[in-house]
Amino acid sequence: AQSVAxxxxxxxxxxxxxxxxxxxxxxxxNPYLFWYVQYPNRGLQFLxxxxxxxxxxxxxxxxxxxxxxxxxxxxxxxxxxxVSDSALYFCAVxxxxxxxxxxxxxxxxLSIRP
Amino acid sequence: xxxxxxxxxxxxxRTGEKVFLECVQDMDHENMFWYRQDPGLGLRLIYFSxxxxxxxxxDIPEGYSVSREKKERFSLILESASTNQTSMYLCASSGTxxxxxxxxxxxxxxxxx
Lengths: 114, 113
Prior knowledge:
The structure holds two protein chains of two kinds. By secondary structure, chain A is an all-beta fold. Helices cover about 0% and strands about 50% of the residues of chain A. Classes of the chains: A mainly beta, B mainly beta. The interface between A and B is medium-sized, with 25 and 26 residues.
């Protein structure tokens, strides 16, 4: 079955330290990969996406993500965390064959301590 | 900036009521989505629409219907609300390109008592 896994429910990082939020997927073909962020009482906001080409993708708010085809992973990273980065992060995978087939991970809560 | 507006932030309804959740987008997007968000389950697709009057069932369509009479508006209808439909409902829209990101509304938190 097609799936997206975010193995950590919560990630805790000190401000100024690098952060990584993990995502692996099991989807056929070469899907499009996305990261979204959700702040409290808000909808999801698009952060970045991988289509093709360079395995390191840069996005909003200083975030980047590294695509690894052999490991079918798309981990979200930031070199220096801010307290304002504290939020819920979702990885999503969209099949190239269907506009509606978007699979979301279960989300990872990122908590940045001052 | 794309704006997706959901008409209500919070709703409280009684079991058996018919409930309408409204969503409007201002970017002329063809694709619109209704998701349900529950803790630990991520987002689950209820219905998808790719054009006016066109719709596809998602993963959990039971107990729901949708209406898309105009391109900018996509309504979710709970025919007879039940307590297990208490949840956060998110509307989203996107362009036709499959690599187009989704743009989400702020959500409607529905409580059915």
